[in-house]
Amino acid sequence: MGVMETFAQRAKQNPKTIIYPEGTNPTILKAVKTLSSEGLAKPVLLGKPEELINVAAELGIDLSDVPIVHPQTSPLMEQYVNLYCQEKDMPPGVGQRIMRQPLCFAAMMVKTGKADCMVAGIDHPTEEVILASELIIGLCPGISVISSFFIMDIPNFTGGENGLLIFADPAVNPDPDAEQLADIALATAQSAEEILGWEPRVAMLSFSTKGSASHPLVDKVINATELARQKAPHLLIEGEMQADAAIVEAVAQKKMGSESKVGGKANILIFPDLNAANISCKLVQRLAKAHSYGPFLQGFNLPVSDLSRGATVDDIVGASIILSARA
Amino acid sequence: MKNEEIETIVLEIVAKVAKRDVQELSLENRIAEDLGMKSVSRLELAALLEDSFPVQIDNFEIRKPKSIAELVDLVKTKM
Known about the structure:
CATH topology of chain B: Non-ribosomal Peptide Synthetase Peptidyl Carrier Protein, Chain A
Number of strands of chain B: 0
Number of domains of chain B: 1
Number of helices of chain B: 3
CATH architecture of chain B: Orthogonal Bundle
Strand content of chain B: under 5%
Shape of chain A: globular
Structural class of chain B: mainly alpha
Largest interface: A-B, 15 and 11 residues
Strand content of chain A: 15-25%
Shape of chain B: globular
Oligomer: heterodimer
Radius of gyration of chain B: 11 Å
Number of strands of chain A: 11
Radius of gyration of chain A: 21 Å
CATH class of chain B: Mainly Alpha
Structural class of chain A: alpha/beta
Distance between the termini of chain A: 22 Å
CATH class of the largest domain in chain A: Alpha Beta
Strand order of the largest sheet of chain A: 8-7-9-6-5-10
Largest sheet of chain A: 6 strands, mixed
Number of helices of chain A: 13
CATH topology of the largest domain in chain A: Rossmann fold
């Protein structure tokens, strides 16, 4: 069974309430209809009901089984403004201005348990999704940065976790320092456990393996590995190591010796910066014909997924059911 | 509204968001480097400015000012 089939099966067993703040987007409406009619999720749309119903009618979509929340007329608005102002010590005018933003309102629905998770970003840049979610939902305890990961399903690759690997961070942090890189590794390990049920084996990648090269860029990865170990002593995390030492047993044996528990067996690859992670994702997609799922955001206290602005119906359905696994 | 009044209110707003004493701040302070304000704080900064002045500042515009003085300039150009 493929990755998506597995997630779809899990989602059907316990469909989650997902809020979509970009309710008037036609691709969102099509995806929501699929999720709802196939029992994969209990979607809720945010927006002006007349407007949503008109767009849906033009697409031939019946939205009668999908709840719509209109923030401006919803009794939740006053409740959320009060909650926000109380928590942040802000005047009512500020609370109203913040809560009028659909991403913030939707994030508040997740925070207050009206929804299990939020899927957004088809009409907003990633940064907007991150800012609204960080402001309202906040970060996981002990995590200093939001980051992202891809699940890579690589044909004919038998390593990693049954041919799957997680790559991080391909979308958010351009040049993380050692502390941020450690947090990216910890958040990714947590995502792998929660979403995929893996026992994480984290490789901190570099152009050096166990001191084969000396450079400040190598030191950053060594320091990040040490910081991550201090925060999570039981996590299987090793570095610095090269990509081949991380995923090829024979190379790991040669470069790292037989005592390594991650070398050759890594299922999570943490790249030293955004250049390396993003370029690697694209190359593996194109050269190895890998299916990639993501980028998924991580580090928030509650589940949030960012969509590419070119996301297709399948992308949105996929992001929604994978996110459901974390909810 | 006089320039001095605008500056005083903007300084008070920045102090509130940055959780600093207003006496510690000067117009030359850089918002990120000197005050350690994260990007997420800018959402609240924009909302507070809109609440205090007859201006509308979107989430893109509020990212541009690097110092408190530039923030004051943004408010003035919007009024």
